Amino acid sequence: MAKTAQNPVKSAETTFEVLDALKDLDGAGVTELAQHLDIPKSTVHNYLSTLEQEEYVVNRDGVYEVGLRFLELGAYARHREKLFEIAKPEVDRLAEETGELANILVEEHGRGSYLYRARGDKAVQVKAHVGTRVPLHTTALGKAILAHMSTERVDAIVDRHGLGGEASNSISNRAELEQALADVRERGVAFDDEERLEGLRCVAAPVLNHDDEIIGAISVSGPTNRFRGDRFREELPQKVLEVANVIELNVTYS
Amino acid sequence: MAKTAQNPVKSAETTFEVLDALKDLDGAGVTELAQHLDIPKSTVHNYLSTLEQEEYVVNRDGVYEVGLRFLELGAYARHREKLFEIAKPEVDRLAEETGELANILVEEHGRGSYLYRARGDKAVQVKAHVGTRVPLHTTALGKAILAHMSTERVDAIVDRHGLGGEASNSISNRAELEQALADVRERGVAFDDEERLEGLRCVAAPVLNHDDEIIGAISVSGPTNRFRGDRFREELPQKVLEVANVIELNVTYS
DNA sequence: CGCTCTGTCCCAGATGTTTGAACAACTGTT
DNA sequence: AACAGTTGTTCAAACATCTGGGACAGAGCG
């Protein structure tokens, strides 16, 4: 699965290294970037000026920054996902009715990408924004997705990305993961009990197409003090499942 | 302004040509892309496999598609714009209160990029999504922005992109543009009377920072049959201006 | 089964990329 | 006002890399 290109175009790799660095540094000058990447500054300058010419990067008085043209590509990529178009209004409703933060996640390259995030009136402030990529096994959303993949696919993903945990409660070996996924299949929903972010709980449900293939997952997340007891174990799971079912119906007839 | 790189990295250019083609074709195979770009398919294959390895492109049973990693970069680029963070809730409110489509636009590389778009309950369906780039002189939003730029900057933009109109009512020479911009400055708001899209009208207001520099514009747009008479000339302009003023206040104190 | 599509691989030649060094343009300090 | 220490930018030679034709395997189809 983790294919490595036989004949990679190194300049293309470098191009994205430059862009990634620009993102990590939150904008930077030529010299700073060159030091960060350990590449001669004339080389960095060549890339930056090319990227600027192509309008993928913008130079704001001496500081190069990631340009909005990526928003064009990104919005397009999201628009192309059937799930987004169909699930968005339902997830908006989910956020409104629960007052919490509601999410849509899909798998790509073995990781989870947040497609959308709707805020209810009491929604927690989470730093991660749309587009953020997370390891699948560390979130309820990801577990909901993994639970409905073939064993081979799960194996491939674990082989590629490992099971490195971000917090204490995390899953750390394959047996634990399998147990967790069995739980998810049995209950129909996945839980996240402060596994990725402290104080944050989450309830997620998978979204399957008419061929029972997993196409993504939706969730609500919120603070532990509001996510407890019956609300956490009964009320919210039921709600999330109901919304997931509506989405599945709409996916089938479209 | 239209700087051309002295020592451009051609492979970087090609990389984005490939991505652009992938977008235009809405996903494609190696051969199809090669024909479209008039490049040998082995070369295209090198780029695609590199892009896939870097996770910027995804291969769904034989068809390469633009990947969600661009959503990561795009969402980041948008998040970096102060205007987006501040204006979003206000524009949401604008959409809700008017029931129409409300927008945020900023200038980049002499063109307009839609940062955000909020839908009221009666909002028209417009194909353009977030990230779409438009010539500034063809929209109310763009005119609101141009009206508050220095003459030199306007000249530079016109030199670079011309005044090619997309529809009949469009501005087609520099004198007409200057007249239109003077109008905008006088009234405080800009109008679009089916200039870009038939049957669609638009009211836009500029957003300035504390130094009176233009940082973007907001608008409401809707069908001609709802945008007429007092509502089009008085009510909506006042509303949009009010929201723009609130945003300006928040921009200043942040 | 054979035909025609794919996508993938390989390697030599041509081309583009890399690189340090030199330069110009700023910034802030003395 | 001159200076030292920045920065971004340019250039051309050396060489690493990309290009591109051709060959190959596999899928799909009649």
Automatic annotation (TrEMBL), chains A, B:
One GO biological process term: negative regulation of DNA-templated transcription
GO function term, MF aspect, one: DNA-binding transcription factor activity
UniProt xrefs under SMART domains: HTH_ICLR (SM00346)
Keyword DNA-binding: yes
Keyword DNA-binding carried by entry: yes
InterPro entries for this protein: GAF-like_dom_sf, HTH_MetabolicPath_Reg, Tscrpt_reg_IclR_C, Tscrpt_reg_IclR_N, WH-like_DNA-bd_sf, WH_DNA-bd_sf
UniProt domain IclR-ED: residue ranges: 69-253
This protein's UniProt keywords: DNA-binding, Transcription, Transcription regulation
Database matches in Gene3D superfamilies: 3.30.450.40, Winged helix-like DNA-binding domain superfamily/Winged helix DNA-binding domain (1.10.10.10)
Domain HTH iclR-type: 9-68
Name under which the protein is recorded: IclR family transcriptional regulator
